[in-house]
């Protein structure tokens, strides 16, 4: 039984932050107290300004509602370390929000107990991130949050969108999912004007505005948002064409290369084709080098010329 009132209050607040709703009986069992004690502690939290709401139902329950200010976040030791590590990982990867993650990590470290601060510092000092490509465009956390809320609440939104050709047009969509891939964020949405599914890069979205109009979610083609977006990215027009016929099974190649699975197609049990097409010649070379198998290549002249130059430099380096 938790007899220390301050400790019990903190524990109660922590529980309310981990789930949408708790019954009074569940809270009493977790804290080892009576239902009457839980009701008194809930009243104490309300007196301190925490917006704890009572819920209706057979047994009744409690939930922490949204308030004017965010209450202190209560984390146990493992949760605090896991959060710090996750922020440190986000700061080192191509998420488009590296600077925001670092600011959040700095704030978290300021309030960590000394015993945890040293552990988190050790993680930071002894880890590093390998970046295989140029960092992607910055992502506005406010935009990400507002679109996520619109996806969750099934609320239509409008925004201006800049296409890959540089043109800009107004869009009105039903947002469904946010997908992160290759250092970029994508919005999967149903365009109400075109009456079709579309994918929008978040770094090309400006002037977003909620419409306050709700919609009934449509089923995503294939019922897999990530797979649908991956397939669209894989089949999107590219500047340079390069198709490799690889003398290895498709499943083996999938484990050897970072090419999207949708770009790898089996021909038979022993060979497959890999679409290495890209807007960047170095990316094509990297994908081909990762195949680790013999292959023949059908590619644009610009691709073959670049590969010949790269191979010549490598031969010169190994012969010198």
Written overview of the protein:
This protein has 320 residues and is an alpha+beta fold. The protein has helices at residues 5-18, 24-31, 35-47, 77-92, 98-111, 114-126, 141-153, 225-234, 250-256, 281-289, 301-319, and strands at 22-23, 52-55, 61-64, 155-162, 168-181, 184-191, 196-201, 205-214, 242-246, 264-266, 272-275, 295-299. It folds into four domains: 5-64, Winged helix-like DNA-binding domain superfamily/Winged helix DNA-binding domain (Arc Repressor Mutant, subunit A, Orthogonal Bundle); 77-126, no CATH class; 141-233, SH3 type barrels; 242-319. The protein is built from eleven helices and twelve strands. The strands form three sheets. Strands 7-6-5-4-8 form a five-stranded antiparallel beta sheet. Strands 10-11-9-12 form a four-stranded antiparallel beta sheet. β4 and β5 form a beta hairpin.
Instruction: Give the overall silhouette.
Output: extended
| Helix and strand run | HEHHEEHHHHEEEEEHEHEEHEH
The number of domains is 4
User: What is the fold named in CATH at topology level of the largest domain?
Assistant: SH3 type barrels
Mean pLDDT: 82
The secondary structure category is: alpha+beta
Strand content bin: 15-25%
Q: How many individual β-strands?
A: 12
Assembly classification: single chain
| CATH structural class of the largest domain | Mainly Beta
End-to-end Cα distance, whole Å, is 76 Å
Strand order of the largest sheet: 7-6-5-4-8
Please state the CA-atom Rg, rounded to the nearest Å.
26 Å
Keywords: DNA-binding, Transcription, Transcription regulation
GO molecular function, one term: DNA binding
Protein name: DNA-binding transcriptional regulator YafY
Domain HTH deoR-type: 5-71
């Amino acid at each position: 039984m938790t007899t220390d009132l301050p400790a019990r209050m903190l524990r109660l607040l922590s529980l309310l932050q981990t789930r949408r709703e708790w019954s009074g009986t569940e809270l009493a069992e977790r804290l080892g107290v009576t239902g009457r004690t839980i009701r008194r502690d809930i009243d104490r939290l309300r007196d301190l300004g925490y917006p704890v709401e009572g819920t209706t139902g057979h047994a009744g329950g409690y939930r922490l509602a949204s308030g004017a200010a965010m209450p202190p976040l209560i984390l146990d030791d493992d949760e605090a370390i896991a959060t710090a590590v996750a922020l440190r990982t986000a700061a080192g990867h191509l998420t488009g929000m590296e600077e925001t993650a670092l600011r959040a990590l700095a704030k978290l470290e300021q309030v960590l107990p000394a015993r945890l601060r040293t552990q988190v510092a050790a993680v930071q000092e002894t880890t590093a991130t390998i970046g295989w490509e140029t960092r992607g465009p910055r992502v506005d956390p406010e935009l990400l949050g507002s679109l996520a809320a619109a996806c969750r609440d099934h609320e239509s939104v409008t925004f201006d969108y800049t296409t890959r050709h540089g043109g800009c047009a107004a869009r009105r969509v039903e947002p469904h999912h946010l997908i992160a891939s290759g250092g970029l964020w994508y919005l999967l949405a149903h365009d109400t004007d075109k009456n079709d599914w579309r994918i929008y890069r978040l770094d090309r979205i400006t002037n977003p505005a909620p419409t306050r109009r709700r919609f009934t979610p449509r089923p995503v083609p294939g019922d897999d948002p990530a797979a649908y977006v991956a397939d669209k990215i894989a089949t999107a027009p590219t500047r340079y064409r390069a198709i490799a016929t690889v003398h290895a099974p498709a499943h083996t190649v999938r484990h050897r290369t970072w090419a999207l699975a949708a770009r790898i197609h089996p021909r038979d049990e022993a060979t497959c084709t890999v679409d290495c097409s890209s807007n960047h010649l170095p990316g094509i070379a990297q994908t081909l080098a990762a195949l680790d198998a013999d292959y023949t290549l059908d590619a644009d002249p610009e691709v073959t010329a670049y590969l010949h130059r790269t191979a010549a430099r490598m031969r010169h380096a190994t012969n010198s």
